[in-house]
Design goal:
Length: 248
């Protein structure tokens, strides 16, 4: 019997995310690859004490200003964030996460971007840990095990495993195979293969066999739920559109 992976609404897609869940969120330098509607559904759902794993902690002001996963911090839903860029790019405009981290209300685990990507990938590939020279001699080294390879000291980094992944893709077929575009090809593919439950926000859903197999990046075996975007956000999330939002 075929499994129906299509959810009618974003609210239904995230309804079973419990308090204390570990959640991966696709995100990189702008709205193009961010699962905007899934994030907002999670904010409405209200799960608490979450651990959020993403490239940023939201609201860093790098490109277009929009309501990304910063709203989860504004709602008081986050207890810990694992990120590479947790603070705002403007010292005069601190993000909600930045304020809460500095106030001791949210725990921060700072991870270099490449190390973060590899920890997520390893979690999906079943690799428990790896050594990297990145971070040796800095504060992030902490008490991590150190070994020398080819004359270079390397830190032991452990894989990340998550309960849920909220990812953004361009197209899906009904079996959950995913195709990406532009900045959707950042953390989304490795996050999709990592979590116990992967939920994909997509622009289009086609019949099985309707995708070019050479274009599929994430096989459907990794994807549990797909939800189609039915409305225009009002700001660009596609490569062919102007990146900057025109102000009135």
């Amino acid at each position: 019997m075929a499994i129906n992976k299509i959810c009618e609404t974003f609210d239904k897609a995230v309804a079973d995310i419990p308090d204390g869940a570990i959640i991966l969120i696709g995100n990189f330098a702008g709205p193009g690859g961010t699962p905007y509607y899934l994030i907002h559904a999670l904010a409405r759902q209200g799960a608490k004490n979450l651990t959020i794993i993403a490239n940023t902690a939201g609201g860093i002001g790098l490109t277009v200003d929009y309501e990304d996963h910063r709203i989860l911090f504004e709602n008081g839903q986050v207890k810990k964030v694992i990120a590479s860029f947790p603070f705002s790019t403007s010292a005069s405009k601190p993000s909600p996460a930045e304020k809460q981290i500095l106030a001791g209300k949210v725990e921060l685990e700072l991870v270099p971007q490449g190390t973060l990507a590899e920890r997520i990938r390893c979690g999906g590939a079943g690799i428990p840990a790896f050594y990297t020279p990145t971070g040796y001699g800095t504060t992030i080294a902490g008490q991590k095990d150190v070994k020398w390879f080819d004359g270079r000291p390397c830190l032991l980094e452990k894989a990340i495993k998550a309960d849920f992944a909220l990812v953004r893709a361009y197209k899906a077929d009904k079996k959950g195979n995913l195709v990406y575009r532009g900045t959707m090809r950042q953390f989304n593919p490795i996050m999709a293969m990592n979590a116990r439950v992967t939920i994909a926000e997509v622009d289009e859903i086609v019949e099985a066999g309707g995708l070019d197999p050479e274009a599929v990046v994430t096989p459907g075996i990794f994807v549990n739920r797909i939800v189609k975007v039915e409305e225009n956000l009002g700001f660009p999330r596609h490569p062919e559109r102007s990146f900057w939002v025109k102000k009135a």
